[in-house]
Amino acid sequence: MKHLCDEFNIHGTQKDILIASTYLHDIGIYAITVKGKVDIPSWKYYEETDYSRSPALMQLHPLISSSLLDRYKDKINKFILEKIKQLVSVHMSHWYPMCPQPNNLDEYLICTADYVASRGTGILKYGGRK
User: Fold this and answer.
1) Domain total in the chain
2) 11 falls within a domain
3) Which residue of 9, 11, 72, 79 sits 20 to 30 Å from the alpha carbon of 51, by its own alpha carbon?
4) What is residue 94's predicted lDDT score, i.e. its pLDDT?
């Protein structure tokens, strides 16, 4: 995200919000992940990490992540918290169409950062610019 902010000349509070959102975007995964093998048909076990999770819940983790951030409503400026929650909620829109879709540069940037971090290449465009 820091590189994307530099590329798009984003500084100050806007950059801080984008970076904070990037750090927090997957917090919901921890709420839907269980140590060890779960004997539930819809859950998938990942032997390499010894954790299990439901693929269906994985599709909802951006919304779960966003809702978990409400715990900080008394500690973070309301405007900033709502902006972070919105960014977190859209970060997987390129994989999961049921997630809110990006509508502005910041939202496209968090989607791009997530995609690049997990796949190593950017595919999303904003205003015709890759």
Assistant:
1) 1
2) yes
3) 72
4) 75
Domain hosting residue 11, numbered range: 2-28+61-119
| Neighbour-count burial of 66, counting CB atoms closer than 10 A to its CB (0-12 exposed, 13-18 middle, 19+ buried) | buried
Q: Is residue 129 part of a domain?
A: no
Locate 58 and state its tokens: 């994985």
Residue with tokens 């997630």: 99
HEC string for 71-129:
HHCCCCCHHHHHHHHHHHHHCCCCCCCCCCCCCCHHHHHHHHHHHHHHHCCCCCCECCE
**pLDDT score of 39 more than 60:** yes
pLDDT band, very low/low/confident/very high, at 59 (cuts 50, 70, 90): confident
Q: What pairs with residue 56 in β-bridges?
A: none
Residue 21, both tokens: 């959102």
The pLDDT confidence band at residue 55, using thresholds 50, 70 and 90, is confident
Whether 36 and 50 have beta carbons less than 8 Å apart is answered as yes
